Fold this protein.
Amino acid sequence: MVFKTLTDDVIVQEGTFAYSFIASGTIYAGQLVKPAGPMQVVATAAATDNSIGVAAYYVTKGEAVAVYGPGNIVRSVASGETAIGADLYGGHGGYVADDPTYGGTSPSVGIALQIAAGGAIAGSGQITVLLK
């Protein structure tokens, strides 16, 4: 349940500003992204990926994308049920989860501010996150 259009607002409360990068692949709004080259990002693909923030909107390869980083409250996509206040970890498909084993060796990407609402993928859904 990633956001696909520019009309879907990812930011809930802006704590800092968004950083500008170039997409090195297709990225959906609300997905966690990781570095992919000099000032380039791509959606996280594995639990060991080190996320730098959440994409503000849908882009394809070569397009500029705004990425919200630490201090912002954003909407993202959870890969399963979450507990309010739980540390969240990144992983495949740009999803977040509150299972520390899901995060592998990567640090927590944020704190859950709500329980994930149901999504199209079993156990997934939209979630509000305070990014770390």
